[in-house]
Amino acid sequence: MDQGSIARILKQVSGGEDEIQQLQKALLDYLDENTEIDASLVFSRKFYIAQWFRDTTMETEKAIKSQKDEDSSEGTHHAKDVETTGQIMHRAESRKIFLRSIIKTAPSQFSTLKMNSDTVDYEDACLIVRYLASMRPFAQSFDIYLTQ
């Protein structure tokens, strides 16, 4: 991964969201911007939004399940674990709100919300996709699967 390019993209993307959300916004803007060139990008954009929403929901469910498992096995809860679960829930909720706002925005309205068109080009979009894919659980545990 080219961390320098990721950092450059994050500097160019406006917003106070977390890093993942900024990269998602940059990728969605790129896809929306180029839908006239390639109609399949409309499907790609919708797929990414749905996948990210699903991932956020799964992350929330895992946090709740792990909290319940710890409660039933230990009887007491460590303050750190509660804080971590709370942070996960808060981050997941903010990502869901972001994705819902993107879904509700009509394509014609979305063009007024775009960042500069020079921010993300094809190579940057490919880099963002690779970076976001590397953050998924399967990619993070790929070495374990290969070892087994």
TrEMBL record:
GO term, biological process aspect, one: regulation of gene expression
Gene Ontology molecular-function annotations: chromatin binding; cohesin loader activity
Region (Disordered): 63-83
One cellular-component annotation, GO: Scc2-Scc4 cohesin loading complex
Source species, domain of life: Eukaryota
Cited PANTHER family: NIPPED-B-LIKE PROTEIN, NIPPED-B-LIKE PROTEIN DELANGIN SCC2-RELATED
UniProt-recorded name of the protein: NIPBL protein
